[in-house]
Protein: Carboxypeptidase-like regulatory domain-containing protein
Organism: Sphingobacterium faecale
Amino acid sequence: MYRFIRFLLLFLLTLLYSLGWTQVRGRITDSHGDALGAVTVSIQGTYIATSTNAEGFYEIKKLPSSSVSMVVQRLGFETKKILLVDIQQPHRLDVVLQEEAYDIEEVVVRSTVNPADNLIKKAIATRNKNAESRDKFEADFYSKGSLTAINLPKKILGAKLQDDNQLLDSTGSGMLYLSETVSHIVVDKPNKMKETIVASKISGENQGFSFNRAEGTAFDLYNNYISLGTTKIISPIADQAFSYYRYKLLASWKEEGQFIYKIQVEAKRKSEPVVEGVVYIVEDSWEVYGLDFVLLGTSINQPVLDTLFLRQQYTYNNSDRLWSKQLQTLDFTAGIMGLRFKGHFTHSFTNYKYVDQFDKGTFGRVSSEFNADANQKDTDYWEQMRKVPLIADEVKDYYRRDSLLLVTSSPAYIDSIDCLRSRFRIQDVLLGYRYQSTPNKLMIRYSSPLSLSRTLFNTVQGWNFKAGLSATKGDSDIGRYYQAGVLFNYGLADKKLYTTGNVLLRFNTTTYATLGLMGGSALKQFNPDNPIPAEFNTVYSLFWGDNFMKLYRDDFVKATYKQYVHPSLELATSLGYFKRSNVFNGTDYTFFSSNRPYTPNNPLDIGNTGVPAFVNHDLWKADLKAIIYFNTQIDKKPNRIDYNHDTRFPVLQLGYSSAFGTSYKGYSFQEVTLGLKQDVVFGNKGVLGYALSAGTFLNADGIAFTDFKHFNGNRTHIGTSSRYLSNFLLLPYYTHSTNKAYLELHSEHNFKGYLLNKIPGVNRLQLQTIVGYHLLSTDKRKPYQEFSVGLDNIGWGKYRLFRVDYVRSLHGTGSPDAVVVGVKLLNRQR
């Protein structure tokens, strides 16, 4: 009863606030009395506008004068204009819209040419002009977004999904996410934008910052490509549009003294990155009046996405004489592994101000910035600024989640949850244990050595087990954060315990200044990139007798420090003392006695002579690394800065290392390195990625093999990343290791289906063609090269987990060609 009274009071307060701020409000329906959502309600000739919610309700908070003309328009319905003269405010005005009943015969056709083609050609011819006329502007932006679960199962793969707070109904359906954003945007197309977020609200959070912002809503038909993340969709008025679309004129009518043409857009091949639906074009200016498109997940090789609906409605302004986007809605359905979701996002653009040029300094690195009080606005503010009224389910979700937040953030509730989660049970010795203190932002974990992922095999230790203790304090997302841990590793064959410890202190989330301290004893691979996963080595050793992983012992202590000194410059440095010693095979155990004997643990000992890889020694080593980003934008929050590095621009990495104070003469050296990587987007023709690295050693003729430059090879024929831009596919692990100058290049072009989606039948498989090239040049060797061609996005239905490449090598050892199967679930991309 108490909760019902609270809900009733909240509803009444919301209603009173709405009445207090609203001058004109009402409901818009069709001729059958059904509510119409996404209806644009504007004041004629101005940028004052609002939109209806899913229940058909709208509100205009402010009128420019006592007598105005209100324009009500929705794609698929006849536009209605209503004159309001000296109305008493607040004023209730319900509107009924009639479905389009325009006659195609209004268009006079005097030739056999498809009239829609002529109209589209004119839109294409003026596309750049129309884009330039609206490429510099300011506007106010409002966004509301929600994500809803559909029949969510209670568990999946044994993990619980539905919550205990009954926010979902008995079928597992209900709202999972609801947020609103109010911001001011300044845009200079094609690449400059600054967004100031004035208000941000997330249901059930009092410190959250919503992600549905203007920076992700720029679906612009005046570009050749409509950008949807990294996917480039062909615009129906792109230069090459007739290669992808067919058109049909459906209707025409006159509005604002201009003819509006409704044109059907049909994809020639649905397997390509295209849309289907309706576009509306204005005669003479050939501007976009509106669009109603559907996009299939299969068209953009995103199998998790079922269908996405994109709608845009434009309004006319007398002073600018432009049709400007006022309303945009995105609706989608998606799902995988029994999980089904639907989303709805509304974007409203008002108060446009077009300019010829912006003042110097208008744009900088800060692409978005939250005001200090953005997430602290009260109900009064939201009722005044909200462009689209809340529907009943949204009012309910705000109430339930905000009420739940009061309970779950109370000290008594937090203490009870901490006690429940931190309760110790005897089986935790075998399964692992976690202690949690939320008020102190403290968590302590114990990892059991008996878990499958911590039970491994190698030829030095035999069967070996890992156990760990770790503690974290602070918020991992904001401000200071501390982490400490210790890891124990014991092998049954060598009967030795290796122990390492580490401490990490992150001082802030503005420069991300981070100090790390670590030390102990550990077995390490000669290649510090660890190209052979320990799990792979376990399987290959036990089943086939291939001990690819080669190890040495390192007793060490090391300090590291890194931070951003500039948004485009990240520096990292380290200093450490290392005592290295050889280790040898301690077991010849395999599952099958027919397996050949293991190779020595020394990567250089091809003849099985038992010679160690290096002289046992100790040394000091210092490193300095600089990463330079050529295009960085900043997302600035009151207590956090996010650096967004655009991978379409080069990233340059410079490094210097020096080993000194060695116990063995000749093991001192210096190394200088350079790295460059970039993704180059070729519209709808895919992405070319490359990674170039080069380096040279100084005074390093006799250094230990541990300090050579080692390259990431592969002898397992299994790929462990979605892209191969840091490793070779056939190169043996240590054959090309060097202490001289070297040059390494990895590149691959993913056509994103551009080639195969044009082939009938084959395009149903949604495969992506990838071609690759890899080069390694070292001193006194012929350059090693790999050429590859492969298919990505292999799988069934929504599960696209595999990639297969045929690889051919030149100037290598062993087989010159092979097939490599990539398994994306392994995900070891660097």
